[in-house]
Amino acid sequence: MTTPGIRQRVVGGLSRDVLVLGLIAFFVAVGFGVLVPVLPTFAASFGATDFLVGMVVSMFAATRLATSPFCGWILDKIGGRLTLAVGIFIVAASSWLMGEAGDFWWLLGWRAAGGIGSAMFTVSAMTLLLASVPPDMRGRATGFYQSGFLIGGMAGPALGGLLTRISLVAPFRFYAITLAIAGLIGLTMLSSATTHADRPAHARATPRPLRQVLADTRFQAACVANFAQGWNSMGVRNSLIPLVIVATLGLTPTWTGIVFAVSAVVQVIVLHPIGHFVDTVGRRPALLAGGVVMAASIAAVPLSGSIWIVMALMCVYAVGATAMSTAPAASVGDATGGVHGGTPVAIFSMSSDVGAIIGPLAAGAISDVAGRPLAFAVGAVFLALSSLVALRMPGGRPDHSAGSVASADPDALLSED
Fold first, then answer.
1. Burial tier of 257 (Cβ tally within 10 Å: 0-12, 13-18, 19+)
2. Backbone angles phi, psi at 11, to 5 degrees
């Protein structure tokens, strides 16, 4: 039954807040896609070594990780909408100032400041997303939100190439502007309802204590999956696959862009059906299948002898990655009940950041010492491990009854199998 607290569902049963968050994600991703390819070149223009260039890239994730533990507290103090907007505005200001940096160390400092705002945005956006839909819509809501990032991320690099013809500073300013737009959208279009009575029925349930959420097998599986995703996305996919294409297959970097673009298109196409699968069949089957599919496809990449095989494998990987990004977020919503989930969402986000920071360093070291196939295999092991952890989750479809998820005993739900 629809309650007054649930904003009108305007597209596929999704609330207005979900649609707004997807729009915000698009503007954030367009700017990010413009900036990221330019950032190493801009850092190198100050005479930075390859190590220092890598420091600029990793500093953003490092400060995100350091800030995330405080985001739940900030969320409770000023609310989700304001936390989101302030976080985006911090990244916008830091991006503009990066373009104005007079030396490498100012560039590094402003990049670090951007990570603070990014953590605030990431945690608040996911918390708002999970609270704005009932349990049976969390998979589709997460998929729609991610589609904003994917579509924006595909458009960004192309725009970045055009902007660099103006100057190396232009992408930084463009990113700042798109972020400012995203922040204004959040302030003016996200729901301002914060009272208990105004919330949807599923968001008025009694919050679970943090210790119970941490002990919930759904939350544990989601965090392990997010760690594996961070490790493989940054440490294997983004760091090693370009080397396979260029160094092993002897092709130009252009082919890396083509492979990643094609796999991104596949991911956009499968987002909605996989989100529906997550909501109707269950989180656990999606995590089990996603981890196995990703592990098998990523482990086979360094053994392939053709760019077409690599492209096919990355398309298969994209399908698994969609399940492994949609189901964990929905599982976090199940474990928290979608209420006051700032701190659990922050921990969930941190698990990905840890993987994204350690993954590139570890995968690179393994590749140097023992070869690329082993580096890919280690990443696949983490994905397979996430599937094993998912076996401990409750089976069956998510509980659709408002508020009951927040207080359900996950071990008791195992009887559904």
1. middle
2. -140, 115
